[in-house]
Amino acid sequence: MDRTRLTDIYFPEARSRLIDLAAFLDRIDRAEGQDDFRLKSLRAALAELAAPGSDKARKILLLLSDPTAEPVAEAGAKSAAGAWSRF
Amino acid sequence: MRYIEPHAHMVSRVTDDYATMAAAGCRAICEPAFWAGFDRSSVDGFFDYFCQLTEHEPRRAAQFGLPHFCWLCLNPKEAENLTLAEEVLAIIPSFLDRPNVLGIGEIGLNKNSRHEVAVLEKHIDLAVRHRQMILIHTPHLEDKWKGTRLILDCLKQNPGVDPSRVIIDHVEEHTVDLVLDAGFWAGITLYPTSKCSPARAIDMIEIYGTQRLWLNCACDWGQSDPLAVPKTALEMKRRGHSETAIDRLIYQNPRRFLGQNPKFRIDETACENPSDAAEK
Ligand SMILES: [Zn+2]
């Protein structure tokens, strides 16, 4: 499928998500406090998004991943945060 | 359109969902054991759950002509309590001969803890000793990459594991190649926010091919869509994939993997794909 056809299909959705993301960053900006590990990770991912080259989904998923190899001592909370807490 | 839903937690869904899935072309549903959203307090809770999966759900599905199959285990979210895990592992063999049980699953890791790894190894050992197929859950979000590598290590360490009889589910762009390169089957889960979208799933299919891949919705008690697989099939059409390619991915692939267990039977005469004749 060529670039124009893919753009026809996905541009409106990508544009909408882009503006949602921009508005989210503005909202954060207006709020008091500091960036935590999630926002720091997200800002690093934005740099990756703008960098030249492909394979962006994989690179951003890795950037948001725990890079360590050893099992942790205890599970703690059952849920995941979406970014590595020690980023 | 016909499809098999290879991963759905129907105990958490209403009966209308069975009807809707059947109407959308679903020909069989497979239900891995999982976490109820709260910790069960004793082995008796698991006994009742395994009875629900092997007795009650098949009856509910049969109302809509849907064969219902299941996988049994203690979910990694409940693996921190090693005593409870041992008790649950001890009752699983008594259910393995039930007619709709396909194997051990969904086992795996959640937060990549030492106890989770220990319980995963015990489940793998149980599956090997009883010659059962395995369905693996990989962790969520930031824990997935590390967890997938730990799971692959555990599977490779057990010489009795045949990768062609193991599916590793919830792969994403950063883990799909790890799983396929190691010879295992890979599952892509279509789930809002925390897993994969239809568009990304199709990207992976286009990049990696469909030799050892399936799609599933993993609908459960969370916000999730029991029709995610047929909706993704429509998206594949929009992306230019043929009816034959779609049928191969959403019907023939799960049938090929699951059919390694002779208990997995679908009435093929009721399942003819109208597109087959046209495309032959
Ligand atoms: Zn599941």
Task: Offer a quick outline of the entry.
Chain A is mostly helical and 87 residues long.
Describe the structure.
The complex is a heterodimer of chains A (87) and B (280). Chain A is an all-alpha fold and 87 residues long. Chain A folds into two domains: 1-33; 34-64, no CATH class. Chain A has three helices and no strands. Chain A has helices at 3-30, 37-50, 56-63. Chain B is α/β, with parallel strands linked by helices and 280 residues long. Chain B has one domain (3-279): TIM Barrel (Alpha-Beta Barrel). Helix content of chain B is 42%, strand content 15%. Chain B has helices at residues 15-23, 43-62, 82-91, 114-129, 144-157, 176-181, 198-208, 228-238, 243-258, 274-279, and strands at 3-5, 26-32, 68-72, 101-108, 133-137, 166-169, 185-189, 213-216. In chain B, helix 3 runs parallel beside helix 4 and helix 4 (114-129) packs across helix 5. Chain B is globular. The two termini of chain B are 16 Å apart. The model of chain B is unreliable at 274-280 (pLDDT under 50). Chain A binds chain B through residues 1, 9-10, 57-58, 61-62, 64-69, 71-85, and chain B through 35, 77, 79-80, 110-117, 139-146, 149-150, 172-174, 194, 199-200, 203, 238-240. Zinc ion (ZN) is lined by residues 7, 9, 32, 34, 106, 137, 218 of chain B.
Features:
heterodimer, A: 87 residues, mainly alpha, 2 domains, 0% strand, B: 280 residues, alpha/beta, TIM Barrel, 8-stranded parallel sheet, 42% helix, globular, binds zinc ion
Q: Count every helix of chain A, treating DSSP H or I runs of 4 or more residues as helices.
A: 3
Helix content of chain A: 55-70%
Number of domains in the coordinates of chain B? 1
How would you sum up the global shape of chain A?
Answer: extended
- Ranges of chain A where pLDDT stays below 50 over 5 or more residues in a row are none
The run of helices and strands of chain A is HHH
Within CATH, the superfamily of chain B carries the name Metal-dependent hydrolases
Q: What is the chains' assembly state?
A: heterodimer
Find the CATH topology of chain B.
Answer: TIM Barrel
β-strand number of chain B: 8
Question: What would the average pLDDT of chain A be, to the nearest integer?
Answer: 96
Tally of individual domains of chain A: 2
Written as H for each helix and E for each strand, in order along the chain, the element string of chain B is: EHEHEHEHEHEHEHEHHH
Which stretches of chain B are low in confidence, meaning pLDDT under 50 for 5 or more residues running? 274-280
